[in-house]
Structures are given as structure tokens and as C-alpha cells.
Design goal:
The chain is built from eight helices and no strands. The protein is mainly alpha-helical. α2 packs antiparallel against α6. The radius of gyration is 15 Å and the shape is globular.
């Protein structure tokens, strides 16, 4: 479940809070879960697959946008768990670089601990929230930001599970928490 309660916290990225987008308490908890998962998996950065995993575990709005419902969510979580235990999709301990954004070392003010695609998804989430007249980003905002990068790991997982990502992106352009 997600809470519409605004958080005074910015996304904890290890950078100065004044440059990080503000997120709801529920999204802050999801980001913390993604961070713990990345550390536990031995990954150097939080990537979009970590973010997707946290969204699927915690945000019912994300589930509702998937046409396959619970079976599709189960398949997605299966791929993500396989990755966590070092089986299946082989990204562990590698840096996510979809090519959609420059590598962290090449970004002015790049954020250590976040893949470029994950950081871009978070920034797009904040932008989406502002367009909706909200002060903080929610789970669906982050999901929309993640889906906006067709080459990121999170989208690769969605595709492998049979999700029509283009249709999902279109639906997300029209969806948003109340």
C-alpha cells in the first residue's frame, strides 16, 4: 500500500537533500528497501530492477496497471528474486547503463550509489508529481519514470515477463494517484 502522506524527507541518495526530489513516506520506504536489496545483493548501485522489485512488493497501484494481474506480478517477482540469489538475469555487481543517460562518472553532480537510469527515473517521478500539482512523488510516479527508459533493467524484466511496455507507458501517462 502507498500513503499519500507527504514526507518532509527528500529521497535519501547520499547527496545533499536540497537537490533531491521530495517523496512520500511510502516511496521513501520503497527507496530504502531498494537500497538494502542492492547492498544485500552485492550491487554497487541501486538500479531500476531494485526499484521495480520494491514497487511490486509495496505499491498496489503498480499492480493494478499490469494487465496480467497477480500471475504477471508473480512472474515479475520470480525474475527479480532469481536475480537476487544470483540466478537468471546476470546483472549482479555490474553498473546499469542503458545508454539513455551518461554514466555516473560523466554526469556533473552524478550521484554515487544510484545507476544513471535509476536516478533519471526518480527525477522523472518528481517532475510527474509536479505536473499533477503534487509536492511529493508517489510510487506510480516512480513507476512511470522507470518505464520511460525503454532500455533500463527494470523494463527488461517487465518485457521478459510478457508486459507490453509501450502500452504500459501509454497507460501511465494517463494514470496517477488521486
Amino acid at each position: 500500500m502507498h500513503s499519500p502522506t507527504p514526507s518532509s524527507r527528500a529521497a535519501d541518495t547520499g547527496a545533499d537533500d536540497s537537490v533531491d526530489p521530495p517523496v512520500s513516506d511510502a516511496l521513501a520506504a520503497m527507496l530504502a528497501t531498494a537500497r538494502r536489496r542492492a547492498a544485500r545483493d552485492g550491487d554497487r548501485q541501486i538500479d531500476t530492477a531494485h526499484l521495480l522489485h520494491s514497487l511490486l512488493e509495496s505499491d498496489s497501484g503498480t499492480w493494478e496497471l499490469l494487465d496480467g494481474g497477480s500471475p504477471q506480478v508473480g512472474k515479475l517477482l520470480g525474475y527479480l528474486v532469481q536475480r537476487s540469489i544470483g540466478y537468471g538475469l546476470r546483472w549482479q555487481s555490474t553498473v546499469e547503463d542503458s545508454g539513455a543517460v551518461p554514466a555516473v562518472s560523466e554526469q556533473p553532480g552524478g550521484v554515487p550509489g544510484w545507476s544513471p537510469s535509476a536516478r533519471a527515473a526518480l527525477e522523472l517521478a518528481a517532475e510527474r508529481a509536479r505536473r499533477r500539482g503534487r509536492d511529493v512523488a508517489e510510487g506510480l510516479d516512480l513507476f512511470a519514470g522507470l518505464v520511460a527508459d525503454p532500455e533500463c533493467r527494470g523494463v527488461e524484466v517487465l518485457r521478459r515477463a510478457g508486459v507490453d511496455v509501450e502500452r504500459l507507458a501509454e497507460r501511465l501517462r494517463g494514470a496517477g494517484p488521486a
